[in-house]
């Protein structure tokens, strides 16, 4: 009887550990390139437009980390602009507001099925924000 109870206890412990790992500790990464690997200098464009709205969500450009995004209305249509990880934006005090006129230099691509720009540089009035280097790596702003 003791060995049967020991067996059931070990089985329950294994099941609990497996459940915890599946829900908390072991998450498969989304397939495909992420982060700077998505940035392509050959598709770099400069667009001007009006900020429609600002969003924060996890996406592949920020390697699954929460990131700042804005929807930019341009003469070509609406682009989802991928900015920086949210923690970097907060530490730098970088904010945008709906209605602002900005100019974005970035890699034109599709992310999560939407026409997108991975922002390298943003100009707002007389302010210039360099978000990434020419290879798409996040730069710490000064």
Walk me through the structure:
This protein has helices spanning 2-25, 86-92; strands spanning 44-58, 66-74, 77-85, 101-111, 114-124, 127-130. A 5-stranded mixed beta barrel has the order 1-2-3-5-4. The longest helix is centred in the first third of the chain and has 24 residues, at 2-25. The chain has a domain at 35-130: OB fold (Dihydrolipoamide Acetyltransferase, E2P) (Beta Barrel). It is elongated. Residues 26-31 have low confidence and may be disordered. By secondary structure, the chain is α+β, with helices and mostly antiparallel strands. A hairpin with a 2-residue loop joins strand 4 (101-111) and strand 5 (114-124).
A few lines on this structure:
The protein is about 20% helix and about 40% strand. The protein is an alpha+beta fold.
Question: Count of DSSP helices?
Answer: 2
Counting helices, strands and paired strands, the structural category is alpha+beta
* The level-1 CATH class of the domain at 35-130: Mainly Beta
CATH topology term of the domain at 35-130: OB fold (Dihydrolipoamide Acetyltransferase, E2P)
Oligomeric assembly: single chain
- What does the main sheet amount to? 5 strands, mixed, barrel
Widest sheet, order of strands: 1-2-3-5-4
What CATH architecture of the domain at 35-130 do you see? Beta Barrel
| Assigned CATH superfamily of the domain at 35-130 | Nucleic acid-binding proteins
The fraction of residues in strands falls at 35-45%
Number of strand segments:
6
* Rounded radius of gyration (Å): 21 Å
End-to-end CA span? 69 Å
| Average pLDDT over all residues | 84
Shape: elongated
The helicity comes to 10-25%
Low-confidence stretches: 26-31
- Give, in order, the helices and strands: HEEEHEEE
């Amino acid at each position: 009887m003791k060995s049967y109870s020991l067996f059931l206890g070990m089985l329950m412990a294994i099941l609990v550990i497996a459940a915890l790992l599946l829900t908390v500790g072991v998450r498969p990464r989304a397939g495909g390139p992420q982060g700077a690997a998505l940035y392509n200098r050959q598709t770099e464009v400069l667009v001007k437009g009006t900020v429609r709205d600002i969003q924060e969500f996890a996406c592949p450009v920020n390697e699954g980390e929460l990131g700042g995004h804005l929807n930019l209305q341009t003469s070509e249509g609406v682009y989802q602009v991928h900015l920086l990880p949210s923690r970097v934006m907060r530490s730098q005090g970088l904010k945008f507001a709906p209605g602002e006129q900005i100019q974005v230099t970035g890699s034109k691509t599709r992310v999560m099925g939407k026409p997108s720009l991975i922002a390298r540089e943003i100009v707002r009035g007389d302010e210039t924000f360099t978000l990434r280097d020419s290879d798409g790596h996040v730069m710490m702003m000064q």
